[in-house]
Design a protein that fits this description.
0% strand; Rna Polymerase Sigma Factor, Chain: A; mainly alpha; Arc Repressor Mutant, subunit A; 2 domains
């Protein structure tokens, strides 16, 4: 049977990369800060809750603590919420020519700007669902909210993004026709 230190090491190896990715998105691509906060989350887990918490709940505890640390970081620096553009890049194929590359970059920037306008709770729930592929129940555990609140937040985030995308796409089509 593995010792507590071995279990903690395995937990760290399993979840540190995804926790860093999650924090990076919340912090607008600031990788060094995301790594620091992820490490601090693991240290806090080890110091305060590791011996008393079931291993299965540690993942949710880590995401909750990391999210709270990121929110505290925003409050300290008084910055607007920004997201990391790799989320969009991963979903898009590489452009083949400079014109396509420019359009792709412009589209990515629009999506990031739209994500930034979402309320923090909706953005966090959407990122946990789409990027980390957590279930609604798991997201509820991370955010310490009901599963129905998670569903509402994700629905509203998607609807808001879809509405803004359609509005922006319509405006850009009109602009192109006018040229």
């Amino acid at each position: 049977m593995a010792s507590e230190d071995d279990e903690f090491t395995m937990l760290f190896q399993d979840f540190y990369p995804s926790l860093c990715r999650f924090l990076e998105c919340l912090l607008g691509g600031r990788a060094p800060l995301a790594q620091d906060l992820a490490q601090e989350s693991f240290l806090q887990l080890h110091r305060t809750a590791w011996g008393t918490m079931p291993v299965g709940e540690a993942r949710f505890w880590l995401y909750r603590v990391a999210r709270n640390m990121a929110i505290n970081e925003f409050r300290k620096s008084n910055t607007r919420y920004r997201l990391f553009d790799r989320v969009v890049e991963v979903m898009r194929p590489r452009a083949r020519n400079p014109e396509q590359e420019y359009e792709t970059q412009e589209r990515n920037e629009m999506v990031l700007e739209m994500l930034q306008t979402l309320p923090e709770d909706q953005r966090t729930a959407l990122l946990l669902r789409e990027q980390e592929q957590l279930s609604y129940r798991e997201i509820g555990q991370v955010l310490n909210i009901s599963e129905s609140k998670v569903k509402v937040d994700i629905f509203r985030a998607r609807a808001s993004l879809r509405e803004r995308w359609n509005r922006i796409s319509g405006l850009s089509r009109v602009a192109r026709l006018g040229n």
